[in-house]
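thread: overnight batch results

M.L. [08:02]
morning all. the overnight job finished for the chain we discussed friday. pasting input first so we're all looking at the same thing
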Amino acid sequence: MASGKQITPLQRADIPELSQFLTSGFGVAANAAFFSHEVLSWKYFDGPRGPSADSVRSLVARSAGRIVGHLGIGCRQLVVSGDGAAPVSTMHAIDWLGSAAHPGLGALLMLEAFATSKTQFAVGGTPRAQALFPRLGFEPKCTVAVFRKVLAPFHRLHRTDRGLFRKWAGTAKDMVSVSRARTQPAPQTVELRSAAAFTEEVDGLLRQSARRMVTCQRDHSLLNYLLRYPLAGFSGWTIHASGRTIGFAVLKITPNGRTQLGRIVDCWLDTDDPSCWRATVAALVDHLGALAAGDVTCYATIPSLHEALRRSGFVKSGDRTVYVRDKQQLLPRDLPFGLSEFDADGAIL
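M.L. [08:03]
and the structure it wrote out:
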């Protein structure tokens, strides 16, 4: 490689140096859990089929023997739900960072990663990354609405990552949000069953759906990989109604000071019945509330979930743009995309 830089796969022995490079480059605390040695090992040397001695899921660039760039490769497959078409390989970049002293290195790492899949996607990204996407061939496909529901309006006062003014300002905003929220009771109930590990029972839920959309393939092996996250917080659930399994969900609780932040990381039902979606959202929120979550966030990946969140007292807090690179035009161009936090790195942060 030119200018004395070399791009190679990450080695296990590189993890301490990579952790330091990422925490410094992204300006986060040195003890940030998502850049810990345990989490980086899980990201890049574990996978749906278990731990591996080698990594083809992370590239590092070195100059004068030191790491100056990194790109993690999230390997996935894009499928059209309710369709018998073969999945299309895809990837999304995680922990993507190039040293400011080496301009253009981030793009070079991404170009190297393109060889691992036929398509590529991104959900949101830093302003710098989003400015680079069009030059790399990515097209904006849609936006994903991010919804939030406040369960305990004073929870911000217990956070340790905010100053006093910001905590009180945020608390006032949350109180207004709670007062305006209008929760409509679900007309039926569903049953949540804890899943320490998912089974093949969930594999057919996407295939059974009549809803045609482009989404990331989910199966029990991939979901169980997420549940093996080395730090506590994730939990898996199957959803049941009328004597059958109708869907699954993954939740996360993240400690933040003396409060807890809740997330509906992923939620999929094989039905568009609004009452089932509303009952599912209500049950998931109730569970997170029982775990003392101060608020709950969720990506509204499909219209059914969007409406269920709105009717359950959630309010829109932002949008994430979905970018797709499909140079061979392997994906239908007229179908919507439905991607969750699980499909990007947001669930880990």
